[in-house]
Amino acid sequence: MSELFDAVDALIASRSPLPPPAERRRLRQAHGLTLDEVATALQVRRATASGWESGKTEPRPPERDAYARMLKQLAQLYPADPNVATDTAVPESFAVPAVPASTRAEPAKARTEPTGPILEPASENIALRPAAVPRSAATTRPTSRRPPARTAAPAGSTDPRFENGPLAVIDVDADGQAYAYCVGGLVLDVSAKSVPALVDWTLREAKLGQPKLSGPGKDADPLLVLTESALERYGLPVALTDEERLAGRISEGHKVIRQLVRAEWKLTKRGFGPWARVYRPATGSERACVQLCIPSWNALDIRHWGEAGQLPPAELARVLGVYASRVMTPRGSTAVTGLELMTALHPPTRASEPDADGKRHSEHNPGSLGKDPVDCAPCEAPDGHPLLKDLPRFHVRGPGEKLFEEAYDWARPMTDTECTLRHLVGIDVNMAFAAGANGLIVGLGESTHVKAPVFDPKLPGSWLVDLSHVDLSRVKVGKDKWAELDASLLPSPFTPKGERPEGPAWYATPTVAYAVELGYDVAPVEAYVRYENGRYLDGWYQRLRDAYLATMADLGVDADLAPTDFLAAMDGYRGRDSELAIVVSAVKATVKGGLGKLRERPRGEGWRPGEPWRALSRPTWRPDIRAAVISRTRINLHRKIVKHAAFTGQYPIAVLSDCVVYAADGTSPLDFLPYRDGKPLPGGFKLGINPGLVKHEGTQSVLWGEEVRERFNAPDLNLARYIKDGTVTDVDNGE
Fold first, then answer.
1. What is the block-wise mean pLDDT of the chain (735 residues), using blocks of 10 residues?
2. Cis peptide before 62 (omega within 30 of 0)
3. How would you classify the pairing of strands 266-267 and 178-182?
4. Which of 102, 537, 643, 691 sits CB 3.0–4.6 Å from 435 for a disulfide?
5. What is each CA distance from 674 to 31, 481, 559, 682, in whole angstroms?
6. What is the pTM of this model?
7. Beta strands 266-267 and 275-283: pairing type?
């Protein structure tokens, strides 16, 4: 009899009810679980757990009963909000049957999957509700209908060559059928059985790619993202070994690389790694190149892409597709993409006018950085640069030898008056470095060395000048208007640590121009200036700004909200759509990473001080441009701090990069920002989502700040570093 009971139990378990896919994912994320953790607990592969969650595959006993038990317990902990619409369950009898794989001679078969309702938080304030954003279908089964979406169309849909969008996520189901998940819910059947065949299929049939961003530029190559199941299908490792990870690629003798060689495909110098490029030399204007992205090889850095690499295929296609349509098709890390975006908007060459024979030739594209690298000035060279090879081995360059334009890391002890207040409130500048690039004139070509120059605020360059005479206790805050300030409570605008300079030092143009703006004369000793210059970063800024604002608007944070509505909209915006929140993070990382790449340091390569490294061969290796952007960003922030101090008498307690902390009686930025009739202080801090405006970073108590500083015996501990959540894990070392 017990055997019969066991058989009945097994039969019941084989049909354990499961919530719809959207609810499965909600429950996992509500408890903070990753797909890897779920897979480990259920003793299955991550790809299997991903398939169960997306509804693409169904678990079988005994795993089904365990999976259902986990979801049931999570549902008790995190009941669904009855006011929020969710996808409805679909009986298995409605599953879409497998479609026979298309042959290589036929065009790729496309299947647009039905979409369901957008998940929106219940709210009486419609203005604060997130706008409708497309969600790609996560399964191959039909779900309830979803409304037409504003950005569902593939980014290249207006160009028939790229009608299926810029990219696809390649996944393989339990029956061995490969699918390409594109943007907008489109799914293509993939017939390719090997990596060379997959590359060939992509170029011949998939209709993937993205039109060029600028007239003289090039179209973006199609991007394929390979899931773990796709890696197994095509004979690639699911994870890299330690040796491969350090090398950044699989070995040259791997069977897949041998397959590519036999098929006459080539790899770039970086080989077959997390971001691989497979190509054949161009013939005429036609390019034959496909880029591969492999999340399980850490292609999508969790610092910038969060859990994107663990998303089901359709949802990953959505995240990368939104990023591609608003920024560009990823070319590697967010830093690499940020740099590539600069080049895509200002290609180094263009076609000339026809010559006497009617032929066109490649010529320099005005406004670009050109196709050849230029040497930086000696003061702009980082330590170890070939220009410095004749310096003594242990020589440490001081301010009079080295340009040192970096972001703020400054703090001071609180005054007795500030200690009587209750709270420390941090505000953070949105896209601060992007705003610093907007309208900035930067050098395009080589520098010219000038002795005893007359300072010109419109001439980009590096200037050796003594700014120690600038006294912050009396500064100009307007035309013929001076303000008396407490200089001991302000950081110096001329050094990252906020210390007053002690003599001549090298500065970028925006820093010296600010000294003049504050009402003081300057007399440079020498300079390296760039007479060929322009607003090279304007288009770059505008595209990243638009990407950021559009995505934040989709998350319910519009650019025209009143201060109180803006603060309310920012509260929990990431939870409204976790996938679009990933895009926001990636856009911001593209800004900082792209600027950082302008002064990329050696990365292994067997490099020794005094020798050139790989990045120096790029025309986009321009430490002077990076320095100018950081200089302007720091000056923009200091200008607001001074305006605020002159008007309110309030001074910052800590500044870290783009975050400023003030003491206040309340917990909100509105408790110390001087708004009158809804209008902010002219030239001061303003709440809003636009780049250069500020948002609430975090609030802690004054007692917290004093206790932390006392605990670490650090009266100048930079509280801006910890204001967001109040967690301090170790002594502040400035890293």
1. 61 74 88 83 82 82 88 88 49 31 39 34 34 38 29 53 96 94 94 96 96 92 97 96 93 96 94 96 80 97 95 96 97 97 96 84 93 96 95 92 97 96 98 98 97 97 98 93 96 97 97 98 98 97 97 95 96 95 98 97 86 95 98 98 97 98 97 91 96 98 95 93 87 41
2. yes
3. unpaired
4. 691
5. 40, 20, 20, 10
6. 0.80
7. antiparallel
